[in-house]
Amino acid sequence: MSVKTVAITGNEAASYAFKQINPDVVAAYPITPQTELVQNFSEFVADGVVNTDLITVESEHSAMSACVGAAAAGGRVMTATSANGLALMFEILFIAASSKLPIVMPVVNRALSGPINIHCDHSDTMAARDAGWIQIYSENAQEAYDNIIQAVRIAEDMKVRLPVMVMFDGFIISHGIERVDLLDDVVVRNFIGEYQPNYPLLDVEKPLTFGPLDLHDYYFEHKRQQAEDIKNSKPIILEVAKEFKEISNREYGLFESYHLEDAETAIVVLSSAAGTAKAVVDELRDKGKKVGLLKPRVFRPFPYMEIAQALSHLKAIAILDRSVSFGGFGGPLFTEFRSAMVEFGKIPENINIIFGLGGRDINEQDIRGVYEQLDEIVKSGKVKERVQYLGVRE
Amino acid sequence: MANLKELIKKQEVLSPGHRLCAGCGASIAVRQILAASDDPVVVASATGCLEVATTIYPFTSWRSPFIHNAFENAAATISGVETMYQSLKKQGKIDKEIKFIAFGGDGGTYDIGLQSLSGALERGHDFVYVCYDNEAYMNTGIQRSSATPRGVWTTTTPVGEVIPGKTQYRKDLTGIIAAHNIPYAAQASIWRWNDLIDKAHKAFYTKGPAFLNVLSPCHRGWRFPLEDTIKISKLAVQTNFWPLYEVENGKWKINYKPRERLPITEWMKPQGRYKHLLTPENESIVKEIQQDIDDNWERLLALSGEK
Questions:
Q1: Domains defined along chain A, listed by start
Q2: Which residues of B111-126 are buried (b: 16+ CB within 10 A; e: fewer)?
Q3: Which string of DSSP letters, residue by residue, matches A273-284?
Q4: A45 reaches B (C-beta below 8 A)
Q5: Which domain holds residue B63?
Q6: Residues A388, A354: Cα–Cα separation, whole Å
Q7: A68 touching B, CB under 8 A?
Q8: Residue B76 and residue A69: Cβ atoms within 8 Å?
Q9: pLDDT tens digit string along B262-278?
Q10: What is the CATH number of the domain that holds B75?
Q11: Which among A204, A211, A214 is the nearest to B69, CB-wise?
């Protein structure tokens, strides 16, 4: 297993994955904080180290539209975006998924306007959670790199054939330099394999109609199939992770448990904040506190039974959301988790903490405070406030 | 020059049995244009009459590969298809000669799809874009677009007590496209079918982007008897309401000059959408429209080096 250890940013790691995947077509539009990813990749195109034809479109709407055309034509297609760019693609995200086109798209998480803000939160991809894409969240640059490579295999699996979004946090990960272990080009190439076209539009001998008008007599059946398809991607995601371990020695599942098995209280949090929380778990564990962490990786399809089971033995949990569902009961993670625990039948006491909007930092002190609050809930058996906002001036 | 005897021997790409209205100008335009390619074509379409009436699941009227994505992105979509073709060709994974064409109505082209089209033209993809211009949003029920001519009744420019139909002139889309300095842009009519087929052939076999703006009468929206589609198309050209011209590598050329330019009222009279204008109180509006038509013709003559 030959690896190259480098110090690079999350965007550089992602663009390196693009280079190794060597897609046939990339259509992309610049947006902070994704810009550097596509910029780096443009250099690979300009230097001829990839076969990719790069379409430098005039908007994200056209980026996703061109990706749909290119993927339907019958080849490997990738793009990347953030925040408002994802919002501009919104209409076409659903079309890509319902057309079963295996497009892979890193989304560098950034707060949605308005007001305009360029820093990290998850309002962009949470707003797109029902578009029919598989959603995989990454904690750091290493995970971003690994998840992008795995996403190609997941998307293109003949039992799946769905588009995949791979998330990592804007600036915190996209622009922070970290240690990353890169795989060999050949290893990646062998892992992802040759692209297998499925009903390609370019087959003029067998002409097909893509995107027909589908009315009340068939639309519902097609949506029902789509619901089944994304659900069935779960075992494939796990199979791909297993094979990926063989080439990387790095383990991936539907979520990551950190000191969860014997914990009494735990935090659930996505992406880079999980890194900060792990440091706090280590510190509290040293003091003998039974604390743990669950970091979701695959949010769509949502592995509700597995997650609810993993949390069922806890006395209290805090579900941290880096986005708001305006007018909803709590953040999107919170409502999904509560609902999953109801289905499983064991419901630890729980609170929802909305944090980090627009790039507001969350530090170790903040997370220590959350564990302290969970302790109090366990002691008193009472939840004072179910849905809370952390780190905001009120 | 297109040879009718040869053309009718070809299998048509758009098969009969589609659900466009009898007398629809768009289907005539599509058939004439697709007859002009000697190679297989991949067709893209914007959302609109053409798309909804030819692809009602589980049926399709298309004998060629066909893709519909959304309303505003036919150009971006076909640019993705064409790029994948170029990529696979370069890699030796495909060797067939294939032509790429996108159709959009005036709503999908003049209005909501203009940015997508402009981007695809600027990037220089090898494709043909056809606007079948029926001068309003006909699929949703005759709402005004930026292609709707001045004075016309539509459901969103109704003839009221105060406002007599659409108050603005239409956008000069063909001019806007020509300003992209693409190799080929033309305006055509289904009445001059041989001119249209010649232009379509040129568009298919020009390397890089090519554009055709084809006036496609809609009897539902324009309010004329459905058997008069070609007659109305002819009047559009003979009144200079819809001049036939092309811009080839920057060179403007008028392809047809009416022997005697008919007054614009001849174009208006058979169409119910103009009925309210042909009254004494709206005479001044008709005069202004006539002046605008004549000015545009003069401008076209000047651009073509004929003045």
A1: 3-248 (3.40.50.970), 255-390 (3.40.50.920)
A2: bbbbbbbbbbbebebb
A3: HHHHHHHHHHHH
A4: no
A5: 4-303
A6: 6
A7: yes
A8: yes
A9: 999 999 999 999 999 99
A10: 3.40.50.970
A11: A211
- Residues of B whose CB is below 8 A from A57: 76, 79, 119, 123
The answer to whether B92 contacts chain A (CB < 8 Å) is no
Between chains, do A203 and B65 touch, taking CB under 8 Å as contact? Answer: yes
Task: Give yes or no for residue A1 having a pLDDT over 70.
Answer: no
* Token couple for B156: 């969103």
Q: A67 phi and psi, to 5 degrees?
A: -60, -40
Mind listing the pLDDT tens digit for each residue in A299-315?
A: 999 999 999 999 999 99
Instruction: Give the CA angle between residues B277, B281, B282 to the nearest 5°.
Output: 30
- The full DSSP string for A39-78 is HHHHHHHHTTSS-PEEEE-SSHHHHHHHHHHHHHHSS-EE
Which of A104, A49, A46 is closest to A75 using CA atoms?
A104
At residue B209, the pLDDT reads 98
User: Which among B60, B77, B91 is the nearest to A209, CB-wise?
Assistant: B60
Q: Summarize pLDDT for A105-140 with one digit per residue, the tens.
A: 999 999 999 999 999 999 999 999 999 999 999 999
Among B54, B56, B59, B88, the residue to mutate for chain A (most A Cβ within 10 A) = B88
Q: Does A195 touch chain B (CB under 8 A)?
A: no
| Closest residue in A to B40 (Cα–Cα) | A204
